[in-house]
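Key result, reporting period 2: structure in, sequence out.
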């Protein structure tokens, strides 16, 4: 058991190192720089193979006869795709559409096609569907959620069996086998292209010129000190005619993971809190809590989409007791994977939602055009 713990710790450290270096947040030195150099060399055959596969798949794109809107990115890691997908699902619902979200279901154990929701509460757990699809089913009403590695099959099921007349593909920018009427490219405003290299030397999934396939650039994590400047000078320069929408994530509400009841901010502030997360950018979550005036006495973070074990629970509780925390605060995505845990202190999740700062008219126009297309304009 101890050997397994050591291996898991080493893997976590390796993932954190690669994430920091490949995203451009850290400059490697010495042996680390040499290792990065080898990874960058491996990026060349990856780029060639990736471009060839994309070309082959795009030549056989399938049209469904209903509007298909894709939300994706060209880098790995969190850029806020799922919150943006949820935001768009609600807007399309208000336009009178029967919406279905189609996702791969990252990190799930079940194989094949899984119906997560038919428009109501989740029908399966996160182990079978992935945390983000279950979260989408939890926070939307009247929106179906279907997961499957074959997004074409999943989308067809949603149309034929669940009567969806609009499909939202979460993380679908590279899934070109499914023709779409609108491609929204979510881009981190602070690091639009990571360190500028393709996988595995960087975080780019494909060459930045792929931005020209998009119909709209959505800059996420915009703030007072970070607008769309970097996006405009990098990806925007490759597609000057492409509209840019500036967005950020804002806190929505706290809720108790065990009971589901809403928790007032004042109640959270009464406690010393331990931040717990397994997301791509844990520091952003911790900064949000501090910005809300919460007494953050400590933090524990794991790699993105981490599967919490009993040992992890014990580690978190040990840290909470060590720093004198009276409450554990986590993300809503983590809350999905922590729903069965009953710690001896309140476990509270912070929900977030997309806030459009500028360019909202471009988003509305593109969404309305796609919704009216009838699925005939897919590229």
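The corresponding designed sequence is given below.
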């Amino acid at each position: 058991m101890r050997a397994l713990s050591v291996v898991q710790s080493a893997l976590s450290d390796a993932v954190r190192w690669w994430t920091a270096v490949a995203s451009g947040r850290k400059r490697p030195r010495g042996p680390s720089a040499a290792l990065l150099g080898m990874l960058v060399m491996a990026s060349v055959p990856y780029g060639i193979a990736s471009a060839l596969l994309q070309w082959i798949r795009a030549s056989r794109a399938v049209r469904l006869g209903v509007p298909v809107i894709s939300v994706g990115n060209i880098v790995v890691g969190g850029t806020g795709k799922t919150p943006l997908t949820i935001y768009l699902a609600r807007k399309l619902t208000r336009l009178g559409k029967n919406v279905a979200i189609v996702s791969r279901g990252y990190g799930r154990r079940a194989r094949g096609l899984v119906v997560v929701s038919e428009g109501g509460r989740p029908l399966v757990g996160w182990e079978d569907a992935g945390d983000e699809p279950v979260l989408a089913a939890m926070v939307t009403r009247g929106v179906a959620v279907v997961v499957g590695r074959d997004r074409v099959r999943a989308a067809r099921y949603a149309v034929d069996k669940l009567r969806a007349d609009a499909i939202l593909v979460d993380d679908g920018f590279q899934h070109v086998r499914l023709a779409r009427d609108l491609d929204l490219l979510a881009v981190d405003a602070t690091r639009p292209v990571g360190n500028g290299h393709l996988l595995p030397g960087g975080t780019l999934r494909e060459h930045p010129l792929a931005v020209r396939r998009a119909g709209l650039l959505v800059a996420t994590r915009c703030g007072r000190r970070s607008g769309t400047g970097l996006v405009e000078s990098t990806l925007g320069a490759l597609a000057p005619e492409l509209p840019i929408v500036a967005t950020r994530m804002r806190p929505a509400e706290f809720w108790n993971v065990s009971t589901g009841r809403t928790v007032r901010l004042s109640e959270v502030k009464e406690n010393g809190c331990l931040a717990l997360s397994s997301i791509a950018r844990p520091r952003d979550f911790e900064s949000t809590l501090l910005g809300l005036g919460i007494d953050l006495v400590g933090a524990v973070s794991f790699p993105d989409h981490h599967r919490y074990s009993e040992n992890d629970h014990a580690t978190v509780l040990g840290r909470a007791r060590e720093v004198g925390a009276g409450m554990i605060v986590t993300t809503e995505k983590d809350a999905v994977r922590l729903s069965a845990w009953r710690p001896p202190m309140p476990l509270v999740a912070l929900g977030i939602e997309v806030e459009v700062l500028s360019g909202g008219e471009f988003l509305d126009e593109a969404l309305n055009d796609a919704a009216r297309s009838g699925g005939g304009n897919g590229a």
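The chain has a mean pLDDT of 92. The longest helix spans residues 31-58. This case is discussed further under Risks and Mitigation.
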